[in-house]
Amino acid sequence: MPALLVIFAMLALGPLALAASAPLPLPIRSEDLSFTYRSNDGEVTLSCRHKPAQPGTHDWRVSCGEDTPLARDYFVHLLVRKYVTTARKPEVAYEILYWVSDRNPPGAFKFTSAVSWLRFERETDLHSASFSQSVENDYASLVVTLGSFGSQGIPGSRNGR
Questions:
Q1: Could you tell me if 155 and 32 are in contact, meaning their C-beta atoms sit under 8 angstroms apart?
Q2: Half-sphere exposure for 18 (CA within 13 Å, toward CB)
Q3: Which of 92, 57, 96 is nearest to 75 (CA)?
Q4: Residue 47 lies in a domain
Q5: Cα(56)–Cα(52) distance, rounded to whole angstroms?
Q6: pLDDT by residue (tens digit) across 129-141?
Q7: Count of domains in the chain?
Q8: Which of 66, 134, 135, 146 is the most exposed place for a label (fewest CB within 10 A)?
């Protein structure tokens, strides 16, 4: 039975499942990111500030609505990997790991996570991409926009850094 699961995973993921190891994560600079807190009923939108949690990691401390009664704090793990394959047919893919630890109220940690894939037949100029993660028991979302920096594109793409 475990062998069948491995074969199914390989077929589902295609040539990416056959890679011996994942490529190194792409560098993400602070200015290449923006975060926004949005309530799912559309009534609250908070601007957020972010800073690396620790140099050399893929972790960020995100503070939204600072100096307001609605202030929120989050710990974010954001990692992007670029895969280039030539098996079967050429493909360029980006794997985005976006994990959020909700730190509201302090000491009460709740976690949500997602892995997203963007797949292309060839190198593509991708201006930006946004991903949402539910927070506060699905009352709101923490939206990250990656690569919203003019014509520079996603880091590691053809037009990126």
A1: yes
A2: 8
A3: 57
A4: yes
A5: 9
A6: 999 999 988 899 9
A7: 1
A8: 66
Domain residue limits at 93:
25-152
Please give the model's pTM, rounded to 2 decimal places: 0.76
The answer for 159, left when phi > 0, alpha when psi is -120 to 50, beta otherwise, is: alpha
Q: For the segment 38-75, what is each residue's pLDDT rounded down to a tens digit?
A: 999 999 999 999 999 988 889 999 999 999 999 999 99
Q: Is position 36 within any domain?
A: yes
Pairing of strands 110-120, 129-135: unpaired
Q: Please answer whether residues 20 and 83 qualify as being in contact, where contact means their C-beta atoms are separated by less than 8 angstroms.
A: no
Residue at token pair 């880091």:
155
Query: Per the domain annotation, does 101 fall within a domain?
Result: yes
In the block, residue with structure tokens 């940690």: 109
Q: Residue 22, Cβ neighbours under 10 Å: how many?
A: 11
